[in-house]
Amino acid sequence: ELSNPMGQTQNIEGQARLVREDGTFFFPFIGVVEASGKTVEQIRMQVARGLDRFVTNPQVDVRVVSYRSQKVYVTGEVRQPGILPVTDQPLTVLDAINQAGGFNELADRRRAMLTREDRETEIDILELYATGRGNLLLEDGDVLFVPDNTPNKVFIMGEVEEQVSVPLHDGRLTLAEAITGAGGFDLTVADTRNVYVLRGGEAFETPDGARAIRPEVYHLDARSGTALLLAEAFQLEPRDIIYVSSTGVVRFNRVILQILPTIQTLWQTDRILND
Fold first, then answer.
1. What is the pLDDT of residues 48-79, one digit of tens each?
2. Largest CA distance in the chain
3. pTM, rounded to two decimals
4. What does the alpha-carbon distance between residue 166 and residue 156 come to, in Å, rounded to a whole number?
5. What is the dihedral sign for C-alpha 161, 215, 167, 196?
């Protein structure tokens, strides 16, 4: 503003100069000014030098009215997914999630996926909140995706009150919490000496060329108080399977129930033939 030193009281946006796609803008008396790749201070000095031919000791102020050219995308299970501008203030992963309204009730708070060009980086959100490590600085064109929590479940089977799948809470769930979520042991039939956690291990190729998984199996004898403390400390992972075995008598009774119809049929057939 050449005529009013208090130009900040006027409509700044109306007075602003739009930087065109080629990185330049037009300014009176000077002509085309190259803005691409320069700081605000460098542009200020360039404009001042250009005006020096027309104005004695020009006092120039340059401000960025709005940022439009660089942006990042926040998608997935956040409250306000959308586009965030990259401004003079550094934009980190946590900043982007907070500006998008935070997580919604379906979000997987354990991890997020950052896509930059053709590279994908998985971010541990829990560790990020706990330690601050991995709070990456976002760049133009980045896509930050927060997945839903649907795959983050464990499955409880066997002799429990209710065979169910239990979701992880904020990425965490202990063995004791999972069993409680299934209603606890069915003490009429459960063998609490044999509680197993089955976890998918590393995939490998068998000699005949087939793909297989070498599972990890953890065994817990839940009869003692010490074992229950271990169950409270044992952290489960997504897709773990918990199996509670039945007692030997129950297994025997089930076998008898399975073969009893066949025995009865044979016995009745024999009676008919012999009578």
1. 999 998 888 888 888 888 888 889 999 999 99
2. 130
3. 0.62
4. 8
5. positive
